[in-house]
Recover the amino acids of this structure.
């Protein structure tokens, strides 16, 4: 399978620091969360459990065979989860970006904008989806107005602005 200048190398999540930390501490986290309150939501527990199986051959794989050279390899199943698994998150981001570029967006110049908040505000927005939507709407209106003003200064009229929003909650615990 190396004829085209590349060869498949199975990622080995079991050897990463994140995998070790989750494997060694997940039971403690779940127990402590249960003691403090109702525990973690089921989807969070499920995502952690799936992450520990993601990319590990012992939890399932597909055998892939090259028809021309008859070479075979094993490809471990992925969790396709959101939030925990860096590999699946990266894959999802890549597939989404390719779809947007190839199928949705016109071939014109683009500008990326990032809106970031202090951690305390992030937690409020995470808990109140309606507020998050309102904040995003205000932000986009401001950006679109700025783009229209810039276009008018350059003699362009009647242009349309659009947006693709990707909301992420991440960052360190420091403010």
């Amino acid at each position: 399978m190396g004829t085209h200048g590349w060869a498949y190398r199975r990622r080995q999540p079991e050897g990463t620091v994140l995998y070790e930390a989750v494997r060694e501490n997940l039971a403690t986290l779940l127990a402590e969360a249960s003691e403090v309150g109702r525990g973690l939501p089921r989807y969070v527990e499920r995502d952690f459990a799936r992450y520990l199986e993601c990319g590990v051959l012992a939890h399932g794989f597909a055998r892939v065979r090259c028809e021309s050279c008859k070479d075979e390899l094993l490809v471990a199943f992925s969790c396709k989860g959101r939030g925990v698994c860096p590999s699946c998150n990266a894959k999802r981001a890549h597939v989404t970006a390719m779809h947007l570029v190839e199928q949705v967006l016109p071939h014109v110049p683009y500008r990326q904008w990032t809106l970031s908040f202090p951690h305390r505000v992030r937690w409020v927005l995470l808990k109140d989806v309606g507020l998050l939507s309102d904040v995003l709407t205000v932000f986009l209106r401001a950006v679109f107005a700025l783009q229209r003003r810039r276009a008018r200064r350059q003699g362009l009229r009647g242009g349309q602005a659009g947006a693709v929003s990707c909301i992420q909650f991440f960052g360190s615990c420091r403010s």
